Amino acid sequence: MGDKGKFELENRNEDPINYASSVSDWGFGGANLTNTSIGLVPKVNPMAVSKGGLIGSSSCSSTSMVDAFGPTIWDHHANSENLGFCDNGVQKNASTSDTFGIRKGDPVALRSIDKTFDMVWNPTSSMLKGDIFLTNSHAMLPQRLTPFPADSAFIERAARFSCFNGGNFSDMFNPFAVPESMGLYSGAGGVMQGTQEAFAGSGLKSVSGGQSQKNEPSVGEVSKDVSLSVEHGAAGGSPPKDERSQSHVRSHEESKQRSGGSGNDSDEAELSGAGDQDEPSVLEGAGREPFARGLDSRKRKRNGQDAKLDPAKGAARQSGDCAKDNTEIQQTGDQNPTSTTNRSSGKHGKQGSQASDPPKEEYIHVRARRGQATNSHSLAERVRREKISERMKFLQDLVPGCSKVTGKAVMLDEIINYVQSLQRQVEFLSMKLATVNPRLDFNVEGLLAKDILPSRVATSSTLGFSPDMPMAYPPLHPSQRGLIQAGLPGMGSSSDLLQRTIHSQLTPMAGGFKEPTQLPNVWDDELHNVIQMSYGTSAPSNTQDEDGSLPSGQMKVEL
Amino acid sequence: MISKGATWNSNSCRIKFARRFVSALLHMRNRNTRPGSLTIEGVRTHTQRIKIAAYLSMAQAVGSRRAWSRAVLSKHGSRARRHSRMGRSSVGLKKTRVIRSYPPGELGQAKKLRQLVPGGKTMDMCSLLEETAHYIKCLATQVKVMQTLADNFSK
Predict the structure, then answer these.
(1) A321 burial via Cβ count (<10 Å: 0-12, 13-18, 19+)
(2) What secondary structure does DSSP assign to A28-95, as a single string?
(3) What does the pLDDT read at residue B149?
(4) Which of A108, A199, A233, B27 could form a disulfide with A158 if both were Cys (CB 3.0 to 4.6 A apart)?
């Protein structure tokens, strides 16, 4: 669960707008991941589009944030977000004027952040269950936010705390990492960049929160909110959270700007105003400390959509500051070494167009985390690494029995074994079909072989696979005459058995096997091969197809 | 919604594969001579053909959307077979063998995976993993369909 939450958090960070898409993809249980992960990238775009409709709908992040505060908040937003892509949600969100429009996945991420601050992780767990936290909570969130000192260290801790600490994410998990990974997915959601920075604990820019104007794409807001939430969370103040949600919702633009300028405490005051909008951005823009701080004390004004959140938010001033925050943030953003100037500028440019369709971006904006090398090579490396880990996660869900495995090497081994076992099964089944297909009167021989098989299994100990063999043999279909017998490794007198079965089965057949005596010899070598092949690797995880794995082992997979 | 989409996706994939595979099997059975299938070699050959037919059917069901399906189709497709029979096939040589330095940390597993997944030799790690995921999904459905077929035939 924690991992899931982190994932969502990550997704959100990338792009508040794409949050819905990314989050929805990741937010659901493992099953969902399977579906979504493959289409994660393309999905991101639709999500972004949907977000466009949302005003600063950092939906994903905001929803989670709001969620943390109370299920009631999510009421109106819930319907807007659909599990799939936020397209529906977008419209709804727009209507509700809540930028959250998001999807289920998002809330988790946001929630985790909020939780850290003063709440338990309940929302996170609930989120993982696939609840849809939709934008509704967004509005409510601001109310809960309590002002807390936007201590950079605290923010960092909060960010870390809220983010996932799981396996592969550990390295990317530093406060800055989360937004980054998310950014990769959103691709189109260049806006996310800002959010990533916001996450950088210390760098939480208040800017992201307060500055984003409502019209800004949700991405910006999300990032802001993220940052805000992180900061607020640390302080344990509810008001900041409100601000965050508001800001992120509304100020997509601001969030974007914030992302550009990370870590400006001075921006806090400004951000606080924009805080509302950035609920989702807070998560992403963990680095926006100043923003979070500002949020706490100030009420965020929602530029647009967050009208509902206004009363809730404690930081009213943020909204007012949003406008100027953008500029300031941008300036401050430059100071941050983490953000690549070209990227941030790209982001800002996007902000203007964010209002409608953030996902339109073709390339992925990646924001360097604080303290990381800003070399374009290393950034690309990071993007690539995160992509790979994302795919590994997806594979983890596909391969049965790999949920607990962490680490690329072990995971790859499992994947390789699984693919090999599947191919062996295909081979075995094709062999089965080859023998069964032309002969439809096979059942008699099959029964004979079946009777012989179980008795023989007990004696198989020569190869030391007896404990494993019996398991594999019973499911074997005895319909294949000599072939199946040949595939029984570990039988002490396999050759005798083969001869017997072959003779018993061949005699009724007119053609039969011309040289039954030679068969066992032929099979002996193959048996050894089978044994090595079947048991050289770990036993196949899919037990239902056990019957196919062993016998097919004798044949090499030639593809 | 997502799960629904995924189910529909796998179902359609499964149905397409089943249809193609069964028709290929029938076609092969009609072509196959009775006595030939009784010998071990005959059975082996038949098995190989069925196996290739299975992979081909799956690749055709998937279409050209995936790199691995494209690789399978180019390797076993009718055109490729015709070309190989004629001698040198340009289709087979079209794919240039890329000698890539395996990224650190991947060890020999990536190499093994590339050998397993069709067409994986020329893919970078990122797309390799993606193709592997889709390939695993299709392989699983393939196995399921073949299993039910075999069960029905043997009953």
Answers:
(1) buried
(2) S-HHHHHHHHHTHHHHHHHHHHHHHHSTT--HHHHHHHHHHH-GGGGHHHHHH--SS-THHHHHHHHH
(3) 83
(4) A233
**Are A84 and B140 an interchain contact pair (Cβ–Cβ within 8 Å)?**
no
A-chain residue closest to B129, CA distance: A391
In the structure encoding, which two tokens stand for residue A59, read together?
């939906």
Chain A hits for B136, Cβ within 8 Å: 395, 398-399, 415, 418-419, 422
A79 touches B at CB < 8 Å? no
Q: Among B29, B46, B136, whose Cβ lies nearest the Cβ of A398?
A: B136
The pair of structure tokens assigned to A216 is 């800004």
Asked whether residue B89 is assigned to any structural domain, the reply reads no
Q: What is the pLDDT of residues A129-150, one digit of tens each?
A: 444 444 444 444 444 545 555 5
Percentage of residues in chain A with pLDDT exceeding 90? 1
Residue range A502-511, pLDDT digits in tens: 445 444 444 4
- Dmax (CA) of chain B: 54
Whether residue A340 contacts residue A379, with contact meaning beta carbons closer than 8 Å, is answered with: yes
Spatial distance between the Cα atoms of A109 and A229, rounded to a whole number of angstroms: 11
Tell whether B86 is covered by a domain.
Answer: no
Distance, in Å, from the CA atom of A188 to the CA atom of A197, rounded to the nearest integer, reads: 17
User: What distance in Å separates the CA atoms of residue A415 and residue A550, rounded to the nearest whole number?
Assistant: 18
Q: Helix (H, G, I), strand (E, B), or coil: what is residue A445?
A: helix
State the pLDDT at residue A420.
Answer: 92
Q: Which two tokens stand for residue A456?
A: 């023989």
Place of tokens 């490729």: B80
Indicate whether B141 belongs to any domain: yes
Chain B residues whose beta carbon lies within 8 Å of the beta carbon of residue A413: 109
Q: In terms of residue numbers, what domain contains B48?
A: 11-31+42-79+103-153
ipTM (interface pTM)? 0.83
Amino acid at the residue A313: K
Mean pLDDT for back-to-back runs of 10 residues, chain B (155 residues): 55 80 78 68 83 86 84 75 58 52 60 83 83 89 87 76
pLDDT score at B97: 54
Instruction: Give the residue from A74, A113, A302, A315 showing the smallest Cα distance to A223.
Output: A113
3-state secondary structure of A315: strand
The answer to pTM > 0.80 is no
Nearest CA in chain B to A478: B154
pLDDT at A83 over 90: no
Residues A84, A21 contacting (CB under 8 angstroms): no
Encoding tokens for residue B18?
A: 């089943």
pLDDT at B53: 84
Contacts of B65 in chain A (CB under 8 A): none
**Hey, are the CB atoms on B47 and A514 less than 8 Å from each other?**
no
Report the residue count for chain A: 559
Which residues on chain A are in Cβ contact (under 8 Å) with B49? 434
For helices A341-354 and A192-199, angle between their N-to-C axes, nearest 10 degrees = 120
Burial of A401-421, coded b for 16+ CB within 10 Å and e otherwise, reads: ebeebbebeebbbbbbbbbbb
Under 8 Å between Cβ of A347 and A281: no
CA distance A58 to A115: 18
For chains A and B, CB pairs below 8 A equal 165
Number of domains comprising chain B:
1
